[in-house]
């Protein structure tokens, strides 16, 4: 009799533990859904230049654009590259896009799928506004050409010009020092500058996955990564998802 009672007691305890576990899972799921519901910054981590990830990123942006009314897309690009893309969005040809793509030669992003990504956005999400928040990569090509464009249009005294020069200097410093901590911190500062100008609008951002972990360190493991720093700055308004961790992108 005693062993039977003991057995029944163990069954009851197991059932209670199982129910508690289910409750915890439900609570965590609820917390995640609330976080996503109230997020204003939606970050998606990627592995650069992967066709399937680029296709998925377009699908996600398409949904945010048409279902959530988002218009601002933040990218791991220098300020002036994103501004060139914004000009291209208003043009009836692809000259600017082609030039930007050529400048990316030698990088992981120099893949045909990247041009398709931008062309799909132009065709299906035409009010998209790009924001580049990285340091000044291609400062000697895209950057210089952007300054020439501004000068040609008598905009050398504009805020666009000042920011472009500042970001080009960031790029020069980064390539002279190879200081990844400097880059991570500048990416965060540039993001904050762009986001604060939007007065609380919801935005989506696409960055390398090493920059998007909300509780992660940077590539060097010395400082909090960009998303971690943004979380500390803005609080609980950031949703982050690592697309490069999904198995589907490398499966045939």
Report what the structure shows.
With 252 residues, the chain is of the alpha/beta class. The protein has 2 domains: 1-37; 39-249, Rossmann fold, CATH 3.40.50. Helices cover 58% and strands 12% of the residues. The chain has 9 helices and 5 strands. It has a 5-stranded parallel β-sheet, sandwiched between helices. Helix 2 (51-67) packs parallel to helix 5, helix 3 (79-89) packs antiparallel against helix 4 and helix 6 packs antiparallel against helix 7 (159-177). The chain is globular, with a radius of gyration of 23 Å. The model is unreliable at 1-34 (pLDDT under 50).
Distance between the termini: 59 Å
Radius of gyration: 23 Å
The CATH class of the largest domain is Alpha Beta
In order across it, which strands form the biggest sheet? 3-2-4-1-5
Please state the structural category: alpha/beta
Count of β-strands? 5
Give the second-level CATH assignment, the architecture of the largest domain.
Answer: 3-Layer(aba) Sandwich
Shape: globular
| Helix count, DSSP H or I runs of 4 or more residues | 9
SSE series:
HEHEHHHEHHHEHE
What is the total number of structural domains?
2
Estimate the mean pLDDT confidence: 88
Beta-strand share of residues? 5-15%
Low-confidence stretches: 1-34
Instruction: Please summarize the sheet with the most strands.
Output: 5 strands, parallel
Q: Indicate the CATH topology of the largest domain.
A: Rossmann fold
Task: Please give the share of residues in helix.
Answer: 55-70%
Summarize it.
By secondary structure, this protein is an alpha/beta fold. The protein is built from nine helices and five strands.
